[in-house]
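Trying the structure run again after the queue cleared.
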Amino acid sequence: MTQHRHALTMTAAIAALALGLSACGGSAAENTAGSSTAEPTFAAGTTMAELSAAGKMTIGTKFDVPLFGLKGLDGKPAGFDVEIAKIIAGELGIAPGDITWVETPSKVREEYLEQGKADLITATYTINDERRKRVTFAGPYYNAGSTLMVKSDNKDITGPQSLKDVSLKVCTATGSVDSENIKQYLDDPGKQLVLFDVYSKCADALRTGQVDAVTTDSAILLGFVSASEGKFKTVGDTFYDQPFGIGIKKGDVEFCEFVNDVLTDAEKDGSYAKAWKDSVGDAAPEVPALPRLGTCG
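Done. Tokens:
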């Protein structure tokens, strides 16, 4: 643990856990391991000190991705990304009810961090070198990989190599890494590639037969398959690694190190596993290991 983070006492951690709703009661958005009532202290002038003193923060996530970031009927997002964000907020002394959630589709994430519209972003946010030019990433906290989703009765598409037929259309989100990576598998990207601002529109297009496949990371597609009631399936192996990171303002090394410390402790104290089980566990019971964390410098 670095000097930037005030460790929770065991009593506070147990109290925070006891106050959480069970997985089968209430919304997942309120069922979090990140609801600490501790009063942490941080070095003056750090992002942690400013957020902790304010007692509130703004976090960006997806609103249309089942299991990771999906806005419910109560108007609150729920999912693994949301739970990870709540754990971080909790270590700043910020309760779930004091978080303002903003939708951050793939194409606006860097912009929101640069303009101060979000204090951090957990939104199936793949770490790559191009994004590092504008964002500092903590984590990764989960490793996914690009794959394809098709209708369950589709036997012709078995992986990206099946997409050479120029009559086939594949959909993904504008600004996603997949919007570039999938092009190498297409004979005519201009005709075959369909882009929408959010993945839910791709799922709708697949459902109505406007596209033949959807490509993005396996975590996002896991949610859509789970919610499809048997109408969708994923095919083939993953063909591009997608480590999910937590985006923060470029150059804020101290905040990045703090978040990495939180992730490390969350795995040790069980709150990382709890976040997974409460959000993704029904669809994927095996809790993933926390990936090796990157450097913040």
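The radius of gyration is 19 Å. Worth checking whether this holds up in the mutant runs.
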